[in-house]
Amino acid sequence: MIRWLFFLCCTATFAQSPQSAASKWYDAVYNIDIDAVLAQSCLPNNAENYAALDEVFQSTVQKIRFSLTSATYKVGDEFRHDGKRWVPITYRNVIRVTFFNKLPEVQVVEKKMALQQAYNATSITYEKQRNAFLIVYTARLVGVHDGADWKVFPADNTFLSSLFQPCIPQEVREQFQW
Fold it and tell me: Per residue in 128-154, pLDDT tens?
């Protein structure tokens, strides 16, 4: 009996959860650790995917950075598809999009509208001195467990999402109403 309790205790302590996987992914993006972003996601860690992420993080037009050092995750109901466990994960995120070249006033209005639509932002503020937008929005991740560990990746229309959209089956999108 004591061995069984010890096993349960240790397993519960070291088992990865969707929240811990989301936290690792968030930290990887916050710290611009491309290898860790790929390790936590559905994409293979190869030169093509590394270059695609590097292009996003090292853009010559704009810099996008998470502003919070951590987040609180809400994990939805699990859905099973193709032998895998899927969960929706949401969290409040704050990012800053800084443009390297000064934006004319007309472009500020256009960019604000485009960012508002892309992020479905609850708040978006232009910071003139920084030539940047501060965006507050509800971010969506999807978690998938294939029997080994939880992997997470973006499931919304934000700056990294286009790379990861092919990873989410249509059935999962429909189940989560995304």
Answer: 999 999 999 999 999 999 888 999 999
Instruction: Answer whether 19's CB lies under 8 Å from 73's CB.
Output: yes
CATH topology classification for 16-176: Nuclear Transport Factor 2; Chain: A, (3.10.450)
Per residue in 80-92, pLDDT (tens digit) is 999 999 999 999 9
Q: Would you say how long the chain is, in residues?
A: 178
Per the CB < 8 A criterion, the answer to whether 131 and 99 are in contact is yes
Query: Distance between CA atoms of 178 and 114, rounded to whole angstroms?
Result: 20
Run of H or E residues at 25: helix 18-30
Phi, psi of 139 (to 5 degrees): -85, 150
In 41-91, alpha helices (H): 47-57
Give the span between the Cα atoms of 115 and 148, in whole angstroms: 36
Kindly report the pTM of this predicted structure.
Answer: 0.85
Q: Where are the domains of the chain?
A: 16-176
For 37, the token pair is: 């972003």
**CB-CB contact of 29 with 22 (8 Å):** no
